[in-house]
């Protein structure tokens, strides 16, 4: 879900940038374990949620960048609704129990 | 998908490997640059970056498996189509393309049909096994909370999504 959110918000990014963006946007609370990132990205690509292409970085290096597809946006919307429902329920319990 | 495309895919595996290697190399180099900016020596930065990324061979295998499952599913569908095509030949009013490809001798047709079944079953078993393996592994992105005390998290907390 977070990868989709980052890509929706920031546009096309390579894997390394996705990892650093998650870290930065979580105020350095979350650090992506890099070994888990690429198999997950490739799985999302096969699922059609993101698509990849090769692009040049500002340092003239070739990098594989990922961008979210229409199916990915739909998936993100569904996951966000589910996440908010779960965290809302937990919050409600913590507040009122 | 045509048999020509399948043949191309066999050779494509080498290109997929090259792409994965280049992608992981880019990641490692970017991490090394960042660590060197933080003051590490090149040797220390490379060692730490490699440690953080993990086993590259395993990552390649995992990515390959992920890409293989849809390919196997498509291969199974092609088997079905081929089998249906051979069946329609027996019923006589069949498309000319089938007639030209499948030999007409009954023994040969029987042999091809048996071959289809065995091949299809094997592909299905392999795909199921692979899917289970990927499912059990999860392929989730794992993040560890850093700055634990500052954020009131336990050091052994692992957050997955």
Descriptive report:
The complex is a heterodimer of chains A (about 100) and B (about 160). By secondary structure, chain A is an alpha+beta fold. Chain A is built from 4 helices and 4 strands. In chain A, strand 3 and strand 4 (about 60-70) form a beta hairpin. The two termini of chain A are about 30 Å apart. By secondary structure, chain B is mainly alpha-helical. In chain B, about 75% of the residues lie in helices and about 5% in strands. The longest helix of chain B is centred in the N-terminal third of the chain and has 35 residues, at about 5-35. The two termini of chain B are about 35 Å apart. Classes of the chains: A alpha+beta (about 100), B mainly alpha (about 160). Strand 2 of chain A pairs antiparallel with strand 1 of chain B.
Oligomer: heterodimer
Number of helices of chain A: 4
Sheet with most strands: strand arrangement of chain A: 1-4-3
Most extensive interface between two protein chains, with residue counts: A-B, 28 and 37 residues
Instruction: Tell me the span between the first and last alpha carbons of chain A.
Output: 29 Å
Radius of gyration of chain A: 15 Å
What fraction of residues of chain B sit in β-strands? under 5%
Features:
heterodimer; A: 97 residues; alpha+beta; 3-stranded antiparallel sheet; 4 helices; 63% helix; B: 161 residues; mainly alpha; two-stranded antiparallel ribbon; 6 helices; 2 strands; 77% helix; 4% strand; elongated; disordered C terminus
């Amino acid at each position: 879900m977070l990868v989709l959110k980052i890509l929706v918000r920031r546009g096309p990014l390579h894997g390394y940038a996705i990892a650093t963006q998650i870290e930065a946007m979580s105020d350095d609370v979350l650090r992506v374990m890099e070994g888990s990132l690429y198999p997950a990205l490739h799985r999302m690509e096969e699922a059609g949620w993101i698509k990849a292409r090769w692009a040049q970085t500002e340092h003239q290096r070739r990098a594989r960048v990922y961008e979210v597809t229409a199916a990915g946006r739909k998936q993100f919307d569904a996951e966000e609704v589910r996440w908010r429902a779960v965290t809302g329920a937990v919050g409600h319990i913590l507040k009122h129990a | 998908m045509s048999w020509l495309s399948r043949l191309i895919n066999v050779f494509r595996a080498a290109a997929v490997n090259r792409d994965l290697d280049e992608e992981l190399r880019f990641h490692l180099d970017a991490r090394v640059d960042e660590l060197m900016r933080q003051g590490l020596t090149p040797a220390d930065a490379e060692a730490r970056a490699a440690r953080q990324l993990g086993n590259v061979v395993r990552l390649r295998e995992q990515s390959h498996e992920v890409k293989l499952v849809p390919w196997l599913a498509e291969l199974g569908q092609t088997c079905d189509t081929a089998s249906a095509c051979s069946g329609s030949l027996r019923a006589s009013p069949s498309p000319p393309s089938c007639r030209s490809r499948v030999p007409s001798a009954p023994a040969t047709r029987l042999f091809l049909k048996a071959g289809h079944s065995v091949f299809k079953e094997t592909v299905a078993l392999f795909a199921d096994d692979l899917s289970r393996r990927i499912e059990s592994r999860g392929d989730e992105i794992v993040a560890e909370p850093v700055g634990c005390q500052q954020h009131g998290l336990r050091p052994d907390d692992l957050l997955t999504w």
